[in-house]
Predict the 3D structure of the following.
Amino acid sequence: MARILVTGAGSGLGFGAARELAEDGHTVIGHVRSLDRAGELREVLGDAAVLIPAELSDESEVRELAARVAEAGGVDAVIHNAGVIDGPGILPVNVVAPYVLTALVPAARHVYLSSGMHRGGHPRLDGLDWSGRRATASYSDSKLMVTALAAAVPRLRPGVFSNAVDPGWVPTRMGGRSAPDDLELGHRTQVWLAEGEDPATRTSGYWHHQRQQRPHPAAADVAFQDALVAALREHTGLAL
Ligand SMILES: NC(=O)c1ccc[n+]([C@@H]2O[C@H](COP(=O)([O-])OP(=O)(O)OC[C@H]3O[C@@H](n4cnc5c(N)ncnc54)[C@H](OP(=O)(O)O)[C@@H]3O)[C@@H](O)[C@H]2O)c1
């Protein structure tokens, strides 16, 4: 059985993934924005659950989250699930926080929530405000970046399996009630990759419903990956 950190585990796809992992017998470390709203998660994970609060748009809180995961005994896998669809938090929450957690939380498997919308993203890194004081990137841009980050990690961390997942358009707070795809299927692929029991998961790629797809060409472009990682290293002072 594995120990798995899920960010944004208090609601939506993160909650579904945490519940499914717990049902499969794994130990879930649940990141939540606020413990006050974590009652339902505590219920499904049980009293012994490790729940760690952090505001992911604040880099110091992301570092504190990484320290608390280490204190709790570390993890085998991370599902970088938390995300926002608009506002100045787009870069800090969708890109910087997964980068910082990748740098500071050793794990054999990293799973990053991408989106089919990454295909509309622009592979440009100039003029970005990584700190989020100003909104300088779109949701699609951020998901293209996190997809490229996922593709860079196995080159920089040999032996680590690193995958990006398009969960489909599913009915969560972000997806909206009328989203047409299946919520359960929306978290199945992340869970399957994080568990890492199926030999088919011992790879790195871009997935939708347990099938590999070809992402936006920039995500597979080593020059774009390296430029992205260099920009994030410069902003955070952390190397992968
Ligand atoms: N739903 C879809 O159709 C869809 C499609 C493609 C990709 N995705 C991706 O799937 C992931 C999960 O999305 P979802 O649909 O489950 O969205 P959601 O229902 O809005 O949940 C987002 C989660 O992220 C957490 N979060 C957001 N901002 C945060 C911050 N600043 N600090 C800490 N936690 C924060 C939220 O915590 P709070 O509850 O406290 O706000 C919540 O737990 C996202 O990365 C999203 O981009 C979703």
